[in-house]
Amino acid sequence: MNYQLPNINYQLPINHMPSPVGHTFAGICGFVLARPYVAWHQQTRLLYGSVLLTNLPDIDILPGLLLLGNPGAFHRQATHSLIVAAIIGIFVAWLVGRWKLNRLRWGIWAALVYGSHLLLDMLVADPTAPFGVQALWPFSLEYFISPITIFARFDYFNPELGMVCTILSIPNFLGILWEIVVLTPLVGLAWYGFGKTDGRKPLAR
């Protein structure tokens, strides 16, 4: 089943979606927001960690690819849920606690960075059912999508083209360009609004 807010289903005519590049932009935003609280020599690790978190939900393409030869077989299900985002936040909170950092704040940061992937995927003008992501898994197997969509799906696999040719297709390339247009201003806003280092203290206990 699919859930969609009633009476509004406006889709922009430009059909582009968050590819891994788009999700990486979201990860850069997460890095920019947290970097003032991290020592400069740790910021590279923070960047890698933030980008990893924003792309991590798409790990669900691996079971379908390895078992069925179809990367979309299990895509946008369990790993695209709020409960998994919360679990990731709890794990990060436990991890940073070993370094005497503020568990609550870093846990919330990690959950939000991971959850940004869900948000971007819900903004996809998905042309085929099921539409959206299983945001409330395992409590509900319904798919949720935003009533306003600004991206179109990034295709990983087309049986007629094969996986490599599908990923390198012109529609996907144009989608990446659109992501850059849409998401670059958000990175700039995060940088100039929150990302400047101004002597703020690390998020310690």
From TrEMBL:
<keyword id="KW-0812">Transmembrane</keyword>
<keyword id="KW-1133">Transmembrane helix</keyword>
<keyword id="KW-0378">Hydrolase</keyword>
<dbReference type="Pfam" id="PF04307">
    <property type="entry name" value="YdjM"/>
</dbReference>
<feature type="transmembrane region" description="Helical">
    <location>
        <begin position="131"/>
        <end position="152"/>
    </location>
</feature>
<protein>
    <submittedName>
        <fullName>Putative membrane-bound metal-dependent hydrolase, DUF457</fullName>
    </submittedName>
</protein>
<dbReference type="InterPro" id="IPR007404">
    <property type="entry name" value="YdjM-like"/>
</dbReference>
<feature type="transmembrane region" description="Helical">
    <location>
        <begin position="20"/>
        <end position="39"/>
    </location>
</feature>
<feature type="transmembrane region" description="Helical">
    <location>
        <begin position="173"/>
        <end position="194"/>
    </location>
</feature>
<dbReference type="GO" id="GO:0016787">
    <property type="term" value="F:hydrolase activity"/>
</dbReference>
<feature type="transmembrane region" description="Helical">
    <location>
        <begin position="78"/>
        <end position="96"/>
    </location>
</feature>
<feature type="transmembrane region" description="Helical">
    <location>
        <begin position="108"/>
        <end position="125"/>
    </location>
</feature>
<keyword id="KW-0472">Membrane</keyword>
<feature type="transmembrane region" description="Helical">
    <location>
        <begin position="46"/>
        <end position="66"/>
    </location>
</feature>
